[in-house]
Design a protein that fits this description.
With 233 residues, this protein is of the alpha/beta class. It contains seven helices and seven strands. The radius of gyration is 17 Å and the shape is globular.
Length: 233
């Protein structure tokens, strides 16, 4: 499959894996809708895409405000009709702490963005995805969602819940639509979130976001069944 002329929506597209993925998708001919909270950072990514000959539209919004997601979905449906690719990349790390020390308010914020917002995105864009000939949903996860690690309980719980949610959706739509759902674990990648979690790590010792973006783009041109899970080496 080719991505030429397809419409993609990438969350958390202002930096890191999201920005790299948006640029990679645009380079393959997709029109990319960029979402994140920072309009300035999104504009910088959009300018890079346009300078390289690609096509993009920015849509600054806070994903924790579900009304904003619904409004964006309505605007996308009215302007383009179908959505071909949804990349669920946006997430927050929260604080790394022992489970008994987890702050309830912060835990609620982590779950809101990493789980509730993903559910809202799927619900809002289910209609446009169903109108695509090859609707694809790629969700970014973490190994701590499947293999618990000390002090990563809050983030790991959110990723475990997100995976269950996304993969259940894939099971629901596979037999009755053209939508296919996959979960991708980027592994150790040079991002701001990684820098926060491992402040003493040499950034050059881990792969750049472009490596993950390249695999996402390659996966989107392949034929896979819903429930596909991969860790990027």
């Amino acid at each position: 499959m080719t991505l030429e002329g397809q419409l993609a929506l990438v969350t958390g597209a202002s930096r890191g894996i999201g920005a790299a993925t948006a640029k990679a998708l645009a380079a393959e001919g997709a029109h990319v809708i960029l979402t994140a909270r920072s309009a300035g950072a999104l504009e910088a990514v959009e300018e890079e895409i346009h300078a390289a000959g690609g096509s993009a539209t920015i849509a600054p919004l806070d994903l924790t405000e579900t009304d904003s997601i619904a409004r964006l979905a309505t605007a996308v449906a009215e302007r383009w009709g179908a959505l071909d690719i949804l990349v669920l990349n946006a997430a927050t790390l929260g604080s790394l702490s022992a489970v008994p020390a987890i702050d309830p308010a912060e835990f609620a914020r982590v779950m809101t963005l990493n789980v509730s917002a993903q559910a809202a995105l799927i619900a809002a864009f289910d209609g446009p995805l169903r109108k695509s000939k090859h609707g694809r949903v790629i969700a970014l996860t973490s190994s701590v969602g499947r293999k618990p690690r000390a002090y990563w309980g809050a983030y790991g719980a959110s990723k475990a819940a997100m995976e269950t949610l996304v993969l259940a959706y894939g099971e629901e739509v596979e037999a009755v639509t053209n939508i296919r759902v996959a979960v991708l674990d980027p592994g150790a990648t040079r991002t701001k979130m990684r820098e926060r979690a491992y402040p003493g790590e040499d950034p050059a010792s881990v792969k750049p976001p472009e490596a993950v973006a390249g695999r996402i783009v390659a996966l989107l041109t392949e034929d896979f069944a819903s429930g596909y899970i991969e860790r990027v080496g």
